[in-house]
Design goal:
The structure holds three protein chains of three kinds. By secondary structure, chain A is α/β, with parallel strands linked by helices. Chain A contains 19 helices and 17 strands. In chain C, helix 3 packs across helix 4. Classes of the chains: A alpha/beta, B alpha/beta, C alpha+beta. Bound molecules: flavin mononucleotide, iron/sulfur cluster (4 copies) and FE2/S2 (inorganic) cluster. One iron/sulfur cluster binds next to helix 14 and helix 16 of chain B.
């Protein structure tokens, strides 16, 4: 243990602890910008500088380990002046048009400038305006707001293993950008949005679709329905000022009603449907010697990776559409018919934890009539939060409201789709019961849960031992994909989610998602599951009724038309 | 006044001839060293109190001992031949005029710290030195001073030559390491230090060409003897790169403790055309600019550090009365603005602002406020930048604010001048 | 040509700068194209963005075509105080281009460089792999006509 003093308070911490973490133990806040929990220490913004008695220079708290006897001042005039100067330098090269900014009131740079009391900038503006990248349907990049903290580069390169974003050039000409300043859509970007999730300013944000949705809601001719992904109910609370891991399902439904949606449905329902289709596909592949391992298809970021970098693996991917798209397809056919609505007048919105879902909804395959997209607009959790605030809804005071029929009755299996390992666990619950023809003794597959990068399990399917694996974050997914490519994969079934922690850690989730926050959202997700009466997809009565009334049976022709899709090699 | 140790063979031998080197006593120290206890060699260097000649003046034996104690057995040794600091050219001469000398120093050091492989990182602009080194390494290999089982000692060690590609910051240790690894030259967060986790994440010793060049001589004369040369805090000699408005620019080797004035007057032959010397920049672009009346200052690491700058690389750039402080400052500021790696905020953004502020003075647009701003910015950059580049970029400005403050005030108060 | 050069180097990230240096030096217009960057990245198994980040970091590399001969003139203090200005002016007049430009016949590109480490021979310039020192307008004229003559 090491004994130090921070602002004259005695602090004892383990050797190797950074000054920043040591200060946290005493609730002493040191401002940071480039630092982000769980990512590499970059120490390049220099905002967290502190003064150490007896040392001439200042040191950065995020990167400096404590030493016995250190006396640290986190707020001396020298420190404050340095922070102020550094912040002014950033602002002098930043499009600080705050009132017109997506992240107004939610921006780390703005907060910093406010805290430091910066009222005028001593330095002249050196900003040279560059073109925005608005060429894709998921993510907007505004280089004029970038403060070069390097968080996005780290996430894209090290967490996702994609490396679209890099530091180009040097000196003040350094930019964080795809090669040759190209658009993300020209590159191998998966639109996972992890970069947008860690960006401290509004340099990378989701493409805002709230206006489109407001307009649809205002249009009397339109029947506007909304589906909400499993991961949103355990994170939206954070947008509304609640603790991470708060479960806000019914208030969320109430808020959506207040926003004016005609029906509020649950993507958990089509998650259950996915399990039936995908589970049967797996059983069939195993039985008929089809391509194995089968790999999940519900995550568009992962699909992009395969289409761009692993075209050989396309046949390993389940042909099932994602729950979002199964919902869209059913809405524009089954639901429209049932409600006697011309599909043209039906406007389908999804609330997703995800930026890649915006891209997925816009894929040309995702249209049952070949003319209109099945899902008309996709909002992230953050965008929903924004709409709720714009509407002036007092979220905490809302009454609890249930999802609407028919896509509101769901199982716990659908609910856990939001967490890494959830799709696998949901599938195993159904597949093993169907194949083994007896109820499972234990529904919880603990080994596939949690934040470990790659998880494995072995299950007994009709007397045959089958190995399965789960990966989250694309760098880990690549490890499993490489095995499949080399022919060394020992697995029959692989679940991949692009985002660390799965969709609960999605690129469209509330800001400040860290592993600690992910743990809370995961805990909440399994709470939702264990609170449910039905916990297996094949026991969802509405799903069974859907098959009886409409789809007939899993993998039927109609299922194939509506619920399955195909992939193709894409060159960025 | 000159005392030639590392430059004693300059122009006296054919640098391309290993026989010339051997005849003049070359590789004798290596032969002896291979028979010695490894730690004992480091202790000899400790006794010599050798400090790094690349600028930071760090005690050489400390880094060596640090590595010797690491558990990891793959260890690298790098010779920093990047010499990008404007006004410095002594490493080029060491490489062009006596290339075996520092290589011998590298092999001895490698043996002492059990390094498994060596690199020479030479700046891309040194085309001639590069060719000479290619040749020299090959000669040394042929004669068994490099490669497998050196001089039958059982010690294997070889050196690879790597070229820079136009970046001053690659002289900084971690930037250099990144560059060898094939990346942009941007420094890493410390700790861990290179001696713990350097090239390819293995313990790595980095020293300057001149530092290595001293090693054979220390072993030859003994550390205690070496320590008698120079001053208490700075032992041995220093290669000085003298340039600017002097009659005889060039590299001179003098013992530490010699006043700068003597170097300029006696060795450099005084200022050209008898013009009055106005100012001298010490160390290179990263060093302070001092007025003529301060030239009694002696060449000594610790005296230099009084300027808050590490100016051990030993450049002296003389400027006569024709030159204006701000014109010089602009060149310096533009240099750093161009060479900043862009990683950290104070350096990336600050150097650009310094250029703008200096231009304001040159254009007679500066106000009292700009004076306060330039001073405050320079201090913050010095205190908060991530690597030595940003920390020393404002040195010239800070020193002129001290010694040429009237020049600033004149421009503010009498812009018409 | 690129393929031959690639083959000489181990397929490891740390060969990157070496490859770029050798290749660009041998190429007439002394620049590296997008296709070549893709080829190099493919050979080394590193992303194209990474190669681009390296190419754009070091001043030796260019993604724009340049002249057959690259004339680099030092812009730092020791050359500045020794009449660099006249040398540059002479060069600009002789070649009829401004600093940073390439002559119409694509023979010369004129660039600034940071210190060449030849301050004892200031002002200095470097043409391709060769350094010229103690320059004055007349000397510069002679050097340029020699380069013109050779070609
Ligand atoms: C921006 C910058 C440039 C440097 N350039 C050089 C250089 O060209 N040559 C050199 O030996 N050291 C240079 N250094 C110092 C090195 O970082 C390092 O301290 C030195 O190589 C250690 O060797 P030494 O102890 O033998 O001096 C530079 C440092 C900085 C911050
Ligand atoms: S969306 Fe994902 S893949 Fe695309 S740049 Fe951002 S982090 Fe990289
Ligand atoms: S885009 Fe955002 S995260 Fe990336 S470097 Fe710029 S400010 Fe940082
Ligand atoms: S893991 Fe979820 S949030 Fe992330 S890209 Fe995939 S579907 Fe979207
Ligand atoms: S001080 Fe300058 S050169 Fe050093 S890391 Fe910072 S930006 Fe790069
Ligand atoms: S938060 Fe510590 S340097 Fe950026």
């Amino acid at each position: 243990m090491v004994n130090i003093k921070i602002n004259n308070t005695d602090v004892t911490v383990e050797e190797g602890t950074t000054i920043l973490d040591a200060a946290k133990t005493k609730n002493i806040k040191i401002p940071t910008l480039c630092y982000y929990p769980d990512l590499d220490i970059k120490s390049d913004c220099r905002i967290c500088t502190v003064e150490i008695a007896g040392e001439k220079g200042l040191v950065t708290a995020c990167s400096t380990p404590v030493r016995e006897g250190m006396e640290i001042k986190t707020n001396s005039p020298r420190v404050l002046n340095a922070r102020k100067t550094i912040t002014e330098l950033m602002l002098a090269n930043h499009d600080a048009n705050c009132t017109a900014c997506e992240k107004n009131m939610n921006c780390e740079l703005q907060t910093l400038a406010n805290t430091l009391g910066i009222d005028e900038n001593r330095f002249e503006s050196v900003l040279e305006m560059q073109e925005l990248d608005t060429a894709n349907t998921s993510i907007t990049r505004n280089p004029n707001r970038c403060i070069k903290c390097g968080r996005c580069v780290d996430v894209c390169k090290n967490v996702q293993g994609i490396n679209v974003l890099e530091s180009m050039n040097r000196s003040h000409e350094m930019v964080i950008s795809p090669k040759y300043g190209k658009y993300l859509s020209d590159e191998d970007c998966t639109f996972c949005g992890q970069c947008s999730s860690v960006c401290p300013v509004a340099s990378i944000t989701e493409k805002d679709e709230t206006d489109i949705v407001w307009n649809a809601l205002d249009d009397d001719k339109k029947h506007v329905i909304v589906q909400v992904a499993p991961a949103v109910r355990v994170s939206l609370g954070e947008e509304m000022g609640q603790k991470p891991g708060s479960i806000v399902t019914e208030k969320m439904v109430a808020a959506l009603k207040q926003l004016g949606f005609d029906r509020v449905f649950d993507t958990d329902f089509t998650a259950d449907l996915t399990i039936i289709e995908e589970g049967n596909e797996l059983i069939e592949r195993i039985k008929t010697g089809g391509k194995l391992p089968m790999m999940t298809s519900c995550c568009p970021g992962w699909i992009s990776l395969v289409e761009q970098k692993y075209p050989d693996l396309i046949d390993n991917i389940s042909s099932c559409k994602s729950p979002q798209q199964m919902f869209g397809a059913l809405a524009k056919t089954y639901y429209a018919k049932k409600q006697n609505i011309d599909p043209k007048d039906l406007f389908v919105v999804s609330i997703m934890p995800c930026t890649a879902k915006k891209y997925e909804a816009a894929r040309e395959e995702m249209s049952v009539d070949g003319k209109n997209q099945d899902v008309d607009a996709v909002l992230t959790t953050r965008e929903l939060g924004k709409m709720v605030r714009q509407m002036g809804i007092n979220f905490d005071q809302l009454d609890k409201v249930e999802f609407d029929d028919p896509f509101g009755i769901t199982s716990g299996a659908g609910a856990i789709f939001g967490a890494t390992g959830g799709v696998m666990e949901a599938a195993l619950r159904t597949v093993s019961e169907v194949v083994n023809e007896k109820p499972l003794e234990k529904l919880d597959f603990e080994t596939v849960r949690g934040l470990e990068g790659i998880k494995e399990a072995e299950v007994d399917l009709g007397g045959q031992k089958v190995k399965v694996a789960v990966a989250h974050s694309l760098s880990k997914a690549k490890t499993l994909a490489d095995q499949v490519k080399d022919g060394t994969s020992p697995y029959a079934f692989i679940e991949v989610m692009t985002c660390p922690g799965g969709c609960i850690g999605g690129g469209g989730q509330p800001y400040n998602t860290t592993n600690a926050v992910r743990e809370e959202r995961i805990r909440a997700t399994y709470q939702v599951d264990s609170d449910m009466k039905i916990r297996k997809s094949h026991e969802n009565p509405v799903i069974n009724k859907l098959y009886d009334d409409y789809l007939k049976k899993p993998l039927s022709d109609l299922s194939h038309d509506l619920l399955h899709t195909h992939y193709r090699k894409r060159n960025a | 006044m000159e005392q030639k140790i590392v430059s004693k063979r300059f122009d006296a031998i054919n640098p391309l001839s290993i026989d010339d080197y051997l005849e003049s006593g070359g590789y004798k120290s290596l032969k002896e060293a291979l028979k010695r206890d490894r730690i004992n060699i480091i202790e000899e260097i400790e006794a010599a109190r050798l400090r790094g000649r690349g600028g930071a003046a760090f005690p050489a034996h400390v880094k060596m001992m640090g590595i010797a104690k690491e558990e990891e057995t793959t260890r690298y040794i790098i010779c920093n031949a990047d010499e990008g600091e404007p006004g410095n050219f002594k490493d080029r001469q060491l490489m062009e005029k006596d290339p075996h000398q520092f290589i011998e120093g590298m092999v001895i050091t490698a043996f002492a710290i059990r390094a498994t492989k060596g690199y020479i990182y030479i700046r891309g602009e040194y085309d001639k030195a590069y060719s000479i080194l290619e040749w020299t390494l090959e000669e040394a290999r042929k004669k068994g001073y490099l490669g497998k089982n050196i001089l039958d000692s059982g010690f294997d060690f070889d050196i690879e030559l790597r070229s820079g590609a136009g970046s001053y910051v690659c002289g900084e240790e971690f930037a250099l390491i990144e560059s060898i690894e094939g990346k942009p030259g941007r420094t890493r967060v410390k700790p861990p230090f290179p001696t713990q986790k350097g090239l390819f994440d293995k313990p790595t010793l980095i020293n300057n060409v001149e530092t290595f060049a001293n090693i054979p001589h220390i072993l030859e004369m003994g550390g205690d003897e070496f320590a008698k040369i120079g001053t208490e805090s700075s032992t041995g000699t220093k290669l000085v790169s003298l340039s600017g408005n002097v009659n005889n620019p060039g590299v001179y080797e003098v013992p530490f403790g010699v006043p700068i004035k003597e170097v300029v007057e006696k060795l450099g032959g005084g200022s050209k055309d008898g013009r009055k010397i106005k100012m001298v920049q010490l160390g290179g672009a990263c060093g302070p600019i001092i007025p003529e009346y301060m030239l009694d200052l002696t060449i000594d690491f610790d005296r230099f550090e009084d300027f808050d700058s590490k100016t051990g690389a030993g450049a002296i750039i003389v400027m006569d009365e024709r030159f204006d402080v701000f014109d010089v400052l602009l060149r310096v500021a533009e240099f750093f603005e161009h060479e900043s790696c862009g990683k950290c905020t104070p350096c990336r953004e600050g150097n650009l602002q310094l250029v703008k502020l200096v231009e304001k003075f040159i254009n007679r647009k500066a106000t009292q406020k700009d004076l306060i701003n330039i001073e405050s910015l320079a201090r913050v950059m010095h205190q908060t930048s991530l690597c030595g580049l940003g920390q020393t970029a404002p040195t010239a400005i800070l020193s002129t604010l001290k010694y040429f403050r009237d020049d600033y005030l004149d421009l503010i108060e009498h812009p018409e001048l | 040509m690129l393929e031959e050069i690639l083959k000489k180097y181990p397929q490891h990230e740390d060969s990157l700068i070496e490859i770029l240096l050798e290749y660009q030096n041998k190429k007439t217009k002394r620049f590296i194209t997008e296709e070549e960057i893709a080829q190099i990245s493919n050979y080394l198994g590193v992303t194209e963005s990474k190669v681009c980040s390296v190419v754009s970091f070091y001043t030796f590399f260019s993604t724009e075509p340049r002249g057959k001969h690259i004339i680099q003139i030092c812009k730092d203090v020791p050359c500045y105080v020794n009449g660099r200005g006249n040398v540059l002016k002479t060069l600009e007049q002789l070649l009829n281009i401004r600093i940073g430009e390439t002559t119409k016949d694509e023979k010369f590109t004129l660039e600034y460089t940071s210190c060449l480490g030849n301050c004892d021979g200031a002002p200095a310039m470097r043409i391709d792999g060769k350094t010229f020192t103690n320059l004055n307008p007349n000397k510069v004229k002679a050097i340029i006509s020699e380069y013109r003559g050779v070609n």
